[in-house]
Every structure is written in C-alpha cells, then in structure tokens.
Design goal:
10% helix; 35% strand; elongated; four-stranded antiparallel sheet; mainly beta; 152 residues; three-stranded antiparallel sheet; Immunoglobulin-like
C-alpha cells in the first residue's frame, strides 16, 4: 500500500491538525494486534455499538474508559486457581491481558457497556449540540429606506 502525503493540505487549512493526524495513523499498518476480536456496528443514524469477544473475562476483569475522543478497553485476568485443585493440561481459552483503543469522533459519547455471554457490548451515541446543528438563515430582499429615498 502506498503512503499518501498530506503535507500540501497542512498549509491551506486551519484547525484540521487532528484530522490529518488521524489520516496519517490510518495509513500506517496495524501492529498486528488482533486480540480480542471485535465488531463495530451502526445501530441507528447517530448510534453505534462496539462488540468485543472477551470470553473468560468477568466484569471485574474489564475496564472501559472514555477520555478525550478515545475509548479504551482493558482486560486483565487475575491469577486463578481451580476450585477443586485440578491441574490444567491445556489452556485453549485465551485470558491474556489486552488493551484496545478506539478513536471517537467529536460529540460521540459512551452510553452503556454490558457483558453478555462472553461479549462486551459498548453503546455509543453521537449528540451534536444545538449550537452546531445547521440552521436556516432567512434571506431578506427588502430594499432599505434611507431618509425617505431608496438605497441603491
């Protein structure tokens, strides 16, 4: 894959530094982190869901944190011993520690996180403030009168 040079755009834009940094990061190959697997879904026009497969982890082993447009999910399993003292011959269920980060767009908030059947569901909602929503501007085509004469 070819790298794209965004440097010409830097000199003709103001305030988009974070956008170009994100584009640079997207063009970089991932460091091979594939655990745990996850899905990202759109559930409504302004609602999203991140689903992660975290089999073997309990609620106490997982941490979900949203800070400055970054969603961080950490999983760390405490050392456990078998209740009946049995020795494990083969461990096929991965329970290694992980940390996965997701970049969130502006005005995206975490609403809920729940663990069901080994899947961690994180619901996200984008709420745009009223001041940033598009508004209709009336066009005023009336001619103004200045001291009894029509303005030209």
């Amino acid at each position: 894959m070819r790298a794209i040079d965004f440097s010409p755009l830097y000199r003709s834009t103001v305030g988009f530094d974070r956008l170009f940094s994100m584009l640079d990061n997207v063009s970089q190959p991932e460091t091979g982190q594939t655990y745990p697997p996850y899905n990202i879904e759109i559930t409504d026009e302004n609602a999203y869901r991140v689903t992660m497969a975290v089999a073997g982890f309990a609620e106490d082993d997982l941490t979900v944190e949203a800070r400055e447009n970054t969603l961080t999910v950490k999983g760390e399993k405490t050392a456990e011993e078998s209740e009946d003292g049995a020795e494990v011959l083969f461990r096929g269920i991965a329970s290694r520690a992980f940390e996965r980060r997701f970049q969130l767009a502006d005005h995206v908030e975490v609403r809920e996180a729940k663990l069901e059947n080994g899947l961690l569901h994180i619901d996200l909602v984008r709420e745009i403030p009223d001041a940033m929503k598009p508004r209709k501007v009336e066009i005023n085509s009336k001619v103004k009168q200045i001291e009894g004469k029509a303005a030209k």
